[in-house]
Write a structure and sequence with these properties.
Layout lengths: L12 E5 L2 H4 L40 H15 L3 E5 L2 H4 L10 H16 L3 E7 L5 H7 L6 H16 L6 E5 L9 H5 L10 H25 L4 E8 L2 E3 L4 H23 L5 H8 L10 H4 L6 E6 L3 E3 L33 H15 L3 E5 L9 E2 L5 E2 L3 H20 L3 E7 L19 E3 L11 E3 L1 H11 L8
Parallel strand pairs: 1-2, 1-12, 2-3, 3-4, 4-5, 5-7, 6-8, 7-9, 9-12
Antiparallel strand pairs: 10-11, 13-14
Helix pairs in contact: 2-4, 6-8, 12-13
Length: about 475
């Protein structure tokens, strides 16, 4: 144990995280419009289709839309203090540019948040999590078009007013920096990635950043007690060697990711981007008032962390590794998961310190977990379960490093494991890539009962929360 004592601050927000498009299902029920996810049956890297197809696992997901009460009761049994989920934009505004919201969609989230609050679980809500309304993607080319700022403004005003007494913690865009690598999934940009110009990409990014800042402004006006954060994909970059060129390459790759949070936290474009824009003939078109709007900075920084990466300028060593959207150079000192994601618990301590040193604002780890193939078995008591000791080890080792970062002086609000209940993978659109403490009986071929079963890690995490980290093994 970590000295057998609490190593996390009092009031630390322990919990888990999901995304609407990966768990809810009910893709066309009660007035919901199509989203970009509904025609992407192969995940982030796969092709899109003309219409939703039966092989798209996200159309049913894990049927959270109809089973959320059962699932939240299980989260409460584990002791969750917080539950991160997202609102499906097209469940509220089916086409994105509608004049009036869909009342049945609004009511669903009322009911969902009420169920969380019944158990004392704080909702942490991502406003846009990889599912732009499909009509906005097709008709406007997503965030390339400045009109999306107005549509987003209408959307956030609607949900902030509706849930102002139920939701305190908000995130604007999920992994906003991922738009560099997945413009369709992250930014709803319908133009093919290979044909998308850097000018249009960075103009779309500007529109998202302005929209995020507007959301912060609107939210604080509606309820000054709101805590509104940004959310970035966190992948620290190590130089592959101590050659100065590799060190500079690692710095460059970090800046590629962090310029998003630099703007959302500091309120202005960092000067280092001037060189990049000049070299790539990019000229950000700013409307009057944009610079002033960007000064509405976030209250905290949240991020996902699954792995670190290495950087080098040596073309012979630039073999792509698998990863969470961003694939870098493999680190020869690290092992990898079944999906090739390198496992680096100390990297989490490192990025926590890096972000806190850079911003001096509270941090929140809102995604961390291990995707693995789980085997459902029947134990000696006749209960179905999964002996996922590999997941327990992964999470334990990462949380030990989180405790070290807190000891280092990092101000950390909370920790939500990714996919606290099995869901459809964003990167591969598979269900066999499981993250949860709760096994969902559904398979990649669509078979299964959708029944829920507690894995071994369920009780392990319950103990971690109950002891505020005291049960972790050093």
């Amino acid at each position: 144990m970590i000295n057998g004592t609490e190593k996390f601050p009092k009031g630390f927000l322990w919990g888990g995280a999901v995304a609407a498009n990966q768990c809810e299902g009910a893709y066309n029920e009660e007035g919901k419009g199509l989203s970009t996810q509904d025609i992407a049956p192969r995940g982030i890297v796969g092709p899109i289709t003309e219409e939703p197809t039966e092989d798209n696992m996200k159309l049913i997901g894990i049927d959270f839309y109809h089973r959320y009460k059962e699932d939240i009761k299980l989260f409460a049994e584990m002791g969750f203090k917080v539950f991160r989920t997202s609102i499906a934009w097209s469940r509220i505004f089916p086409n994105g540019d509608d004049e009036k919201p869909n009342e049945k969609g609004l009511q669903f989230y009322d009911d969902l948040f009420d169920e969380c609050l019944k158990y004392g679980i704080e909702p942490l809500v991502t406003i846009s999590h990889y599912e732009t309304p499909l009509a906005l993607s097709k008709n406007y080319d997503g965030w390339v078009n400045r009109k999306l700022i107005g549509f987003f403004e209408n959307y956030v005003t609607t949900i902030f007013n509706r849930y102002k007494n139920k939701v305190k913690y908000w995130l604007t865009f999920n992994e906003i920096n991922s738009v560099l690598h997945a413009p369709y999934m992250s930014g709803g940009i319908f133009t093919d990635k290979e044909k998308l110009s850097k000018q249009d990409l960075y103009q779309a990014i500007h529109h998202e950043l302005v929209a995020s800042a507007k959301a912060v402004k609107i939210g604080h006006e509606i309820n000054p007690d709101f805590k509104i954060g940004c959310m970035i994909l966190g992948v620290p970059n190590y130089p592959l060697t101590s050659q100065p060129s590799d060190v500079l390459e690692a710095m460059k790759q970090d800046r590629d990711n962090l310029f998003f949070s630099d703007i959302q936290v500091r309120g202005y474009y960092p000067r280092y981007m001037n060189r990049y824009f000049k070299a790539n003939n990019i000229e950000i078109k700013m409307e009057p008032g944009d610079e002033e709007i960007l000064k509405n900075t976030v209250d905290f920084i949240s991020f996902s962390y699954y792995m670190s990466s290495c950087a080098t300028t040596d073309p012979e060593k630039k073999k792509g590794a698998a990863g969470n959207i961003i694939a870098g150079v493999p680190n020869p000192y690290l092992e990898a998961s079944e999906w090739g994601w390198q496992i680096d618990p100390q990297g989490l301590r490192y990025i926590l310190n890096l972000l806190y040193d850079r911003y001096q604002k509270p941090l929140f780890i809102v995604e961390n977990g291990l995707g693995a193939v789980d085997e459902l078995i029947t134990d000696e008591n006749g209960n179905k379960t999964v002996n996922d000791d590999y997941r327990i080890k992964y999470l334990n080792d990462h949380l030990v490093q989180v405790a070290e970062a807190i000891e280092d002086g990092v101000d950390l609000m909370g920790y939500t494991t990714w996919g606290c209940i099995d869901l459809v993978s964003a990167s591969t659109a598979q269900l066999k890539k499981r993250y949860g403490f709760i096994y969902v009986d559904r398979n990649d071929d669509g078979s299964g009962t959708l029944e829920r079963y507690k894995k071994k890690s369920f009780n392990w995490y319950k103990e971690v929360i109950a002891t505020n980290g005291g049960s972790l093994e050093d």
